[in-house]
Structures are given as C-alpha cells and as structure tokens.
Amino acid sequence: MSNALRLAKGTFGRVALLDMDRPLVRHAHPHCHVLLKVEGADAQFSVGRRMVPLTDESAVLINAWEPHAYAHFDGQPATIILALYIEPDWLGAFRPNWKASGAPDFFTEAVGATTPAIRRLTRSLAEAMVHDPGDAPRHERLLAELMIAVVERFTDWRGTPYSLRLAAASFVDHRVRKAARMIEADPCRVGDMNRLAGDVGLSRAHFFRLFEASLKVSPRVYLNVVRMERAVQAVAEGTASFAAVSESLGFSAPAHFSRFFHDHAGSSPTAFRHVSALRGGDYETLR
Question: Locate the HTH araC/xylS-type domain: which residues (predicted)?
Fold first, then answer.
C-alpha cells in the first residue's frame, strides 16, 4: 500500500517522500508541484491531457491548479517519489519574479530532462529526510538548492515580469470568486453543486463552464483541493482524531475520509501523521 515515508513542512510549503504502489485520483494543488524519482520503477503521470514519464532522468512538472493523476498499473513495482509542493512567496524570496510560480504557465512543459545536479540534490534531500528527519534547516537548504536548479532548468523565468504574469492569471469572474470564497469559508457545507450555482446566480451548466474557464479546475476539484489542504494541515500539525477531522470536512464516515486522503495524498492519514511527528534520532534506510 502506498504511504508517506517522510514529510517536511515549512514556509516553503511541503515535501513528501512517497512510496507509491497504487494510483492517485485526478486532483490538483494550489502550489507549483514537482515530482522527482528517487528509487524503484519508472512511473507515469497524467498531467492535463498528456501522459508523461517519471524516470531517473525526467521530472514531472505541474503548475498550480493543474489537474493530474498518478497512473500506476497492476503489477507495476513500487516507486519512491520526492514530491515538492512549493509556496510562491518562498520562491519569490530568491528572485521576485519567481513568485510567478503560482501562475498557470510557470512550467511550459509537463516533463523535462533532469541534470546530474538535480538528480544529486534529489537523492541528497531524500536521504537527509530519512536519516535526519528533525534537521529542518538542512532540509530547507537542500530544497532551496534543488528548486533553484529546477526553476533555472525548466522555466522561462527571465521572459516576463512577474507582476504582469500574476495580474493576467488573477482575473476571476465575480460569481466564480464568490463561489470559491464560499467553498473556502466552509467546505463542510458545500456539497451540492446545483445549490452552489444557484447561490451565485448561475445555472449549473453555466456555472461549471465559467468556473473551469476562470480557475482551470471544476468546482468539485476545487472543493477537493480545499478539503485536502485542510486535511493535510489537520493530520500533520494537529492532534484531533481522524473522526473529528472527517466530520469537520463534511465526510459521512471516517472510512470515507481515510480513502479520500489516501487517494489524493498517496498515504494513509495514520502514516502521514506518524512521519510528520518524527524527530532526529529516528532512523531508517531507503529500501
């Protein structure tokens, strides 16, 4: 069963070391998202409408809010993946226009050939997370080196002023903006999309078309993104029972929440909380 081996969180966002042997449902993240292979079999992801490979020499590059899925096939061996979920403000501290990592076209391609430096930094960060799980400063230093190499390799960050890119990406119809605010305010209460469409003054069909045109994801995917980000925070940082977290996010039973979490994060909530709580001195080796 797929599970998290390690998790690092901070102002940079989060980094998960995942042992993957089952598919993930189509989902999205509010961060730029980089997937790097550490060990195991080559793998593949569906990004947008493309199937792209994750190998020793290729990275999968996913823009903020871009729908994607892990396409694991029956009988395929497991893969250890370093998954980066990076906050734009943190990247913007390196160069102001790197804050454009929150824009929908930061990565121009969904897959790119890695360099020896990227492969070395990927392995170094994965090993540091396993062998020294409590050394947060070292993790962030390695992540910074890795993301600088990734951005310089895979983006046209010199091409357009970040202010124009973000401005172009930020226009959202006021009715879609209202619906998004309602979802963010209380995802537990937003389950009926027909009602949500009516609440913002649109027919269901028009609402879905306008929402996806504005935010690049469907209302249901947006709701799931909000639920998942709340779930990650509650599981990783909190002490509430999973039953309480499940109820707060609108799931009818804890088992439904656990399946949702595993299908989106590649890990059970139990394993995710465990690796979030690890401190230095708890060692194991990459298999």
Answer: 177-275
